[in-house]
Write a structure and sequence with these properties.
Length: 71
């Protein structure tokens, strides 16, 4: 549903949100409190981010995150 669409936009190949912020994978990983490897695997499509993990990312990235997805 729409939740998957949001996750897909966030983790768009090449890092939609990350690129919009001007961050490299390490910077996003630091802000999101996850490993750089996780970011790489999610962006490349090797792994699917779980809802729990995605919610954790949203919490850690703060209030500007939802508005970023509407761009």
């Amino acid at each position: 549903g729409s939740e998957m669409c949001i996750r897909d936009r966030f983790l768009h190949r090449g890092g939609g949100y990350r690129e919009a912020k001007g961050w490299n994978r390490q910077q996003l990983a630091d802000h999101a409190k996850v490993s750089r490897t996780s970011i790489r695997c999610w962006e490349s499509g090797q792994k699917t981010i779980s809802q729990k993990c995605f919610c954790h990312l949203v919490e850690n990235l703060g209030s500007n995150f939802p508005s970023m997805l509407r761009m």
